[in-house]
Amino acid sequence: MEAYDAQSSAWRDLDRAMGQLFMMGWDGTEVTPAIRTLIEDHHLGSILLTAHNLRSAAETNRLIYELQSIAYNAGHPVPLTIALDQENGGVNSLSDEAHIRQFPSAMAVAATGSLEVASDVARATALEITSVGVNMILGPVLDVLTNARSQPLGARTTGDDPQEVSRYGTAYISGYKSTGIATCGKHFPSYGNLQFLGGGQDVPVITDTLEQLSSKALLPFRNAIANGVDAMMVGGCALVSSGAYMMHACLSREVVTALLRDDLDFNGVVLSACLEMDSLIRQIGVGGGTVMAVDAGCDIIVLCRSFSVQRDAIAGLKLGVENGMLSRDRIYESLRRVLKMKSRCTSWEKALKPVGLDILSDLQLSHSALSKMAYRRSITLLRDKSHFIPLTDLSLESNEVLLLSPLLKPLPASAAKAEGQAGPDGVCSSDVFHSSPAIMQGEELFTDFGRMLGHRLKCRVLHTSYTAHGLCSVHENLISRAGAVIVLTADAHRNHYQSGFTKHVAMICNSQFCASHERREKPLIVVSVSSPYDFAVERSIGTHLCTYDFTRTALDSLVDVLTGDYTPEGTLPGTGRRKKHHSKAAHYWLVEDWSRERDENALNNLIKAVVEAMPPHRRSALVGSMADSFLVCRTGIEEAHFVVRNSSTRALYGFCSTYFFSDSGRGVVGALFVDPTRRNQSIGNSLHERAKRALLGRGDVKYIQLGSGFPTTFPGLPADDQGERQRLRTWFGKRGYDTSASHLVCRMILRNLSSWTPKVEVIEALRDSTIGYDTIPDIGDTNDILDFVRKLSGRGEAELYKIATADRKAYPIIRARDLNNGSILGCAILCDGRSLLAQLLPILRDSSEISGGLLSPIVSPAATKVDTVLQGLVLCGIQRIKAQGLTACILDMVSGESSVEAVSTIGFSVMQSFEGGVRLKL
Prior knowledge:
CATH superfamily of the largest domain: Glycoside hydrolase, family 3, N-terminal domain
CATH class of the largest domain: Alpha Beta
CATH topology of the largest domain: TIM Barrel
Helix content: 25-40%
Structural class: alpha/beta
Number of domains: 4
Largest sheet: 8 strands, parallel, barrel
Strand order of the largest sheet: 1-2-3-6-7-10-12-13
Distance between the termini: 42 Å
CATH architecture of the largest domain: Alpha-Beta Barrel
Number of strands: 34
Radius of gyration: 32 Å
Number of helices: 29
Shape: globular
Oligomer: single chain
């Protein structure tokens, strides 16, 4: 580690030390003579890679290895810092469909409402780019949008609430740092209220005073520093309200040293904005600008791509030291900080033996799932006054849907790309703001989106673009013939033609006449595919969705929402989220303890009302239930049930059951349902809050989950209907439950047993002489079964097996054994609709067939063929049920997609499905 000590002999050469104070880039996907010269002759310490350099993960890996090898062979004491912008959303320097996953933008992630998602996305992003050799990420973005509706940052930052930006910034830092990569917060002291004044002012301007910035915008930077951010990028924008005019913040001692170093106590590395700015070059010169930046307190000077400008910067720094404007101590002060950061994020062993692409292949499935989940959860429905979402619920007059998308233009801050200039981000603006090549890509994506939407809706989607020329006769004709209209907008608050066009379309749709000349509103859905603020407060737009970016994955998720496969659950971050929550005046109902004597009949009536309100295709898990279905009356299980009731009529409006398993510390919300005629009145919320307080009030509760294997009425969240499933996920998610780790639990049935025979291929698969199936014969085997169940399942299932082992005549237990060593591989309980256990599985006594039950099959994961053992247990149970003359077999608590598929092979079909394993985050 001597090389990372600025006082070691390796750094006596001042030129070598000064080289560590620069971060430079170039144009091209190959190492050029210029960048080689900078590394070999000028000891360049850091490389900035942009989209100009990167074509694929494999080529990036090769390119970085070549750069590090050049540095190593040139005698660099420490590896190069390789920095990259990978903010996600529309701002990714490295893209590769085969290896690099697309994740949502920062604001989209915040719209999920989950700090865990933010941390997971950050970690996944960092794992992908570190695998190709990158060791520093220029992120997270910590700007607070104090003037959200006019800023070029848009969805690149979390939003307009300093506290929320802080929390998500910290989550990103945590996720990044878990991979060992160096982090760099930006854009100090905040780009959240930039103004483009025009005229002679050719750089964006921060109009807030330093005092105003301290009160709001600096909070995320303070918290990032407290949570160990490695570096901070200081912006290149002017400050005009801070006492003295500062053309570029990164050149100001007041900003870098007084504010960032002294007031915020930041001791990490400070990066300047890219100094290849026309205004700086014209008015100061890059040599003088470099000296000013280092004198202000910057440790690394960023210069994006011009070799001549880069040499001027190096010469300027040397001249500044020779002339005494900068001392040697000042150079070594920055060197110490840079080396300290490098010691944490890189070494020659890492640099010359990169992980490579194998890890990307291993991560592909999990990262793809994370991407899809994050995008889905981010889609935000701000308004839907006429309930146009999903389109599949509408009876459209025409089988045609019109899609109108804008021809996008570069944002004002990104126009510099074409000239290779630096933008206000601090790295060349081409890589961080939407630029002209993205226009055609966007058009192609919108076209593909239209095709996919038409395929899923089974209708014709007419797609055309609109421009600043506004609405023309072609648009009017298409609107007239379409059954519904979808308008996409991208930053309409800056591209005002989009706002005017959309309002014009809304006016036409609101005044359409149907064939019978009856005035009727034509369905209009407006989707903001970038900033969510386009129509956030525009009430003339009745249905407004936000995707936060228009990447392919975002538009795929939008299709899922429009076709009803997914219910949008995102919320507008920051003050938008708070307003939404505050607008719902909470109404709390009086919740009382359940009394069997007082409430049994009323509960039976409530159950009946809930079941009858369910459509046939969504058969309720309450079918066959009665009040006693929720009573366990077992030692070691403490139960407490709650009701909302009308004390005058004694009618129940809602019911919630809870259980606490004392030996495991597990709390369970076993059931929660409300009178269908009284939904959306906060009855369910009041019951849930009371149940949660009761369980959390226990000092020994370790976790709380939804649903239980004992009693088995609801083993989890009902999942038969996709729309209802998403509604429930959203409802419980907002109350602190984590649905990301849930698993499938099914209740299945095999009918017509008298004529059923197993398939030949199933019998062939079960012909294994090493596994035997029987029922337990004596007390010793009973204890073995109970030990087996306790190790592999929850307390609920263990209670079921206790009941069964206490009366093996009424409840035979089938087991699977390894004949070589006698170990138990699996077990299941047999019963029928006349048994006591049927009250805990109400579907048995309600089934129209004369059914037998096979309850809680459990298979050891150590079994060589888990699904085969499960099939064997089920077949053995079917034989016994069939021998009793019963006509159907109901199989309860089949857990996991693989197990469901294995049982389906035998001939079972799913009766009811649930999401099990949903737990409250404590």
